[in-house]
Amino acid sequence: MDLLPEPPARHGRAAATRQRILDAALAEFAANGLSGARVDEIAARSGANKRMLYAYFGSKEELWMVVLERAYAAKRAEERALAVNNLPPVEAMTALVRFNLRYVARHPEFVALLNAENLHRAAYLARSESVRALYSPLLEVLRDVLRRGVEAGQFRADADPVQCYLTIVSLGHFYVANMHTLSTIFGVDLGSEAALAAREQHCVQVVLGYLRPA
């Protein structure tokens, strides 16, 4: 005899519980990394119990994987929404630079997750096919922007898309990852809007200055 499908309300509750666990895990992992995060704390934050958490995700490590993949996917979704293919080359590159700085400034938890995963030498990220799949299209988009810039006489012809993207993300990531120490050293609030705007302008000038034909 066929089993009756579960009521929609039950599916909705399960999805809501799963989302609460993921939100709680993101906060706990961002604060304490994988090694320091406690399953008890994630369960308490989410209003679920440990048994339910393990039923959904199997282990703390598997939960970490899901949180990490979702963090990358969220960033790439916003990056795709820029639709830089529809922008002139200089505007497209400017949009990418600005986005990458502003995204990590809005989402310091993303920086924290990446820093923690690097402590594990990307052992968990290496198991993820979905994250790698997210970045192949990105490189194609960047390659297209660079090509159009060369054709318009605005970009140098020898710019490597991987190196260019590494520079774009590092200009923002380093700034946010070290914001507190640098603010203390230089006696300025690097998290203020004025400081972010100045940094944004500088990052754009650095990237476009490199890309300018000789």
From TrEMBL:
DNA-binding region: 38-57
Sorted UniProt keywords: DNA-binding
Pfam families: TetR_C_29 (PF17938), TetR_N (PF00440)
Xref: PANTHER family: HTH-TYPE TRANSCRIPTIONAL REPRESSOR SCO4008, TRANSCRIPTIONAL REPRESSOR
Domain HTH tetR-type: residue ranges: 15-75
UniProt protein name: TetR family transcriptional regulator
Gene3D superfamilies hit by this protein: Tetracycline Repressor, domain 2 (1.10.357.10)
PROSITE patterns: HTH_TETR_2
